[in-house]
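Quick log. Single chain, no ligands specified.
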Amino acid sequence: MSTELSSPAPSKRIVVIDMARGLALLAMASYHFTWDLEFFGYVDAGLTAVGGWKLYARCIASTFLFLVGVSLVLAHSRGIRWAGFWKRLVMVALAAAAITVATRIATPDGFIFFGILHEIALASLLGLAFLRLPALLTALVAALVVAAPFYMRFPVFDHPALWWVGLSTVNPRSNDYVPLFPWFGVVLAGIAVTSLASASGLLARLGELSPGSWRRPLVFIGRHSLAFYLIHQPVLIACVWAFSQIVPAHVETRQTSFVKSCQASCQETRDATFCSTYCACMLDALEGEDTLRRLYAADQSPELKARVTELAGMCTAKTDNAPTGGD
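-> predicted structure:
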């Protein structure tokens, strides 16, 4: 039996969902503020790309995309309201295009060619096809989409024109990369969960909740999410830039920055002793071939990538085979 329309969706706006969206936006702003501090040199290079910060960023993105699925069900489960849908889609698509242009100018070596807004626009369109399907079937497809990058990466997707799919054998360099796979699966999970919640009457009960006046800032942000997304980062960057004019950050050498970033990434899978030796090996190898300068110049040539991979393998083997202090 199909469950997605067994119980009608509530007719009034559900405040707690606006609050959840508002909390996610504030979390995103905190992450972007830390990224800005990293960009201007106030915290270690690579901090927001590894460890807890990396997990934090993925949780924020997952929350946004899950809520996209929730919103699709709430807005269109009784029938797609095309006028409102197209208006919202065009706004998000234009905002995504603006982000691409702005970051292409500001940070050309890591510009956002397919970030969270691009994914929201595409997922909103594709998600319509699942609104009438049984919730459990949608949940199954969601699981397959999330798992796809683990077993469906092919060289054909390595062409830049297909990076948005998310199935390339290498991850493209971008300050915000949210491809179709696996992230569309999170939207589908939102659709499935909301359909089940509607069938069980949970949505109707959530619609009856009315938190106190303290909720108003969160609700306001949640109801103006696109405007908040577009405005907050330029404001944060301007603030950090202004501060940097008064209290400049300590400028590290390229070598120090590389070693810190290398060790932070390495220690996600290996111990500190190994990473210290490995990163020193990588620094010596890269400097000896003038490869480090090319890396910091955002050289994306296949030849350079292949050479860096070769050097990484060499340094890994050399470090693994190095005698320990007790030998």
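The first helix runs from residue 15 to 39.
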